[in-house]
């Protein structure tokens, strides 16, 4: 007999969810499931477990919750959600309060109210039956490796929530045994916390010693740190929070992508009702694409940038690298709430090219060409503010990628403009945004900031 803890890592949004069970009882719980829930069902089957409980640590803002989808697909699991902090839901949940206990054979999960990231936030202690101390705690978005949950996402009461987060860390987490393992719901790269560490788990003792939040023992200093270090808030977070509180739609399957012939694709494109997304890599997009396409590459980061930039009520028309990518792309879009698709072009850009249809291009410049171009080109760094502040190309101007539609007017649309980011993914998306904004000559730099540094070229702070 054994305790089973499976961690599911969702790249792009850097989300961590968990399946916990005991094979002596044959039941399992899932904590903070993502929208594409097959992974939990497959893990339960592999471990010969029945998913009986689904726990939400809080009302999520960064992804579409899979709790309703998983409950429907499993057939018998109940959704357990916090009713602390006056939390309200538009669907049926089994309300959970601080101290509630759940039995999974030799594992007992105990809910602990840990507000600060949100008012209703719960963490779940895991203990062996008969033991009075937990061996692990599933911290949700309250405590991360090297960080803690940001308290500013509600748009109100940020000071109050930051103060509650102080109490959560020092009056609850700090009093647990140093050896207790923490299992957070996010890893490095998530905007739900500042500078989250690369490791996927830690211990209470390690975090007390090294986590910057635990070093801010003065409440006012802690609040200033918690509010002053938060990364930019993705525009889709407030929409996600509303959808998750009301209850995401249950699909029963992945969002379906229709395969379209060239003629059907052209007809759909000509209606102007869909947004055209080209999911090929940056160099392929630069080498030839359909006019008006946005280049959101087929990596897990698509989930994030679709959320930042797309309207969930507008149908999506896709150009894929290969038709076999359709299911994977469907998953990436679903995770931030995109389920409306006009379809994808069968055969991809090759079908368009063979028909002799027009193409647009994004020229490339090497790092050495950019270094010698003087003022001939407007060099635009589209990385986050913290990336920009850590070092940038001396002649560059900063324009954070999501702000391009509203702030690009400060650049000259008639002069050549070159975009760069860390490696090129965001730079190509930025270039496609600038083209849609009427810029006539937009270029990118292969390798972007990584290539610039590798070449040993000068940098500025």
TrEMBL record:
SMART domains: Lactamase_B, RHOD
Taxonomic source organism: Haloferula chungangensis
Keyword line: Metal-binding
Pfam families: Lactamase_B, Rhodanese
PANTHER family reported in the protein's UniProt record: PERSULFIDE DIOXYGENASE ETHE1 (PTHR43084), PERSULFIDE DIOXYGENASE ETHE1, MITOCHONDRIAL (PTHR43084:SF1)
Rhodanese domain: residues covered: 270-361, 373-461
Name of the protein: Rhodanese-like domain-containing protein
SUPFAM superfamilies in the record: Metallo-hydrolase/oxidoreductase, Rhodanese/Cell cycle control phosphatase
């Amino acid at each position: 007999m054994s305790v089973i803890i499976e961690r599911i890592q969702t790249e792009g949004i850097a989300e961590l969810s968990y399946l916990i069970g005991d094979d002596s009882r044959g039941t399992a719980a899932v904590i903070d499931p993502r929208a594409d829930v097959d992974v939990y069902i497959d893990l339960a089957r592999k471990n010969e477990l029945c998913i009986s409980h689904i726990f939400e640590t809080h009302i999520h803002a960064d992804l579409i919750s899979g709790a309703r989808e998983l409950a429907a697909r499993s057939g018998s699991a109940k959704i357990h959600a916090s009713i602390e902090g006056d939390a309200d839901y538009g669907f049926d949940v089994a309300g959970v309060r601080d101290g509630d206990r759940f039995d999974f054979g030799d594992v007992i999960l105990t809910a602990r109210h840990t507000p600060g990231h949100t008012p209703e936030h719960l963490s779940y202690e895991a203990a062996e039956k008969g033991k009075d101390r937990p061996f692990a705690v599933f911290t949700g978005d309250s405590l991360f490796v090297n960080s803690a949950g940001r308290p500013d996402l509600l748009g109100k009461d940020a000071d109050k929530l930051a103060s509650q987060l102080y109490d959560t860390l020092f009056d609850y987490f700090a009093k647990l045994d140093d050896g207790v393992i923490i299992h957070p719901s996010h890893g490095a790269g998530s905007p739900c916390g500042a500078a989250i560490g690369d490791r996927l788990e830690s211990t209470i003792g390690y975090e007390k010693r090294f986590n910057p939040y635990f070093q801010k023992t003065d409440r006012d200093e802690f609040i200033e740190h918690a509010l002053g270090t938060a990364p930019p808030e993705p525009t889709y977070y407030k929409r996600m929070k509303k959808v998750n509180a009301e209850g995401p739609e249950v699909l029963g399957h992945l969002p379906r992508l229709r395969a379209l012939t060239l003629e059907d694709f052209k007809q759909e494109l000509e209606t102007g009702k869909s947004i055209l997304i080209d999911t090929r890599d940056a160099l392929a997009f630069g080498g030839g694409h359909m006019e008006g396409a946005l280049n959101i590459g087929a990596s897990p980061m698509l989930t994030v940038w679709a959320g930042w930039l797309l309207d969930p009520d507008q149908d999506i028309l896709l150009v894929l690298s290969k038709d076999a990518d359709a299911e994977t792309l469907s998953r990436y879009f679903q995770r931030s709430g995109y389920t409306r698709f006009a379809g994808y072009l069968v055969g991809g850009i090759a079908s368009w090219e063979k028909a002799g249809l027009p193409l647009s291009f994004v020229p490339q410049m090497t790092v050495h060409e950019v270094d010698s171009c003087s003022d001939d080109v407007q060099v635009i760094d589209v990385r986050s503010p913290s990336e920009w502040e850590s070092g940038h190309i001396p002649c560059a101007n900063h324009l954070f990628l999501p702000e391009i539609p509203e702030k690009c007017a400060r650049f000259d649309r008639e002069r050549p403009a070159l975009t760069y980011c860390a490696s090129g993914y965001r730079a190509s998306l930025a270039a496609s945004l600038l083209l849609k904004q009427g810029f006539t000559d937009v270029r990118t730099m292969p390798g972007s900031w990584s290539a610039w540094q590798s070449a040993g070229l000068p940098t500025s702070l």
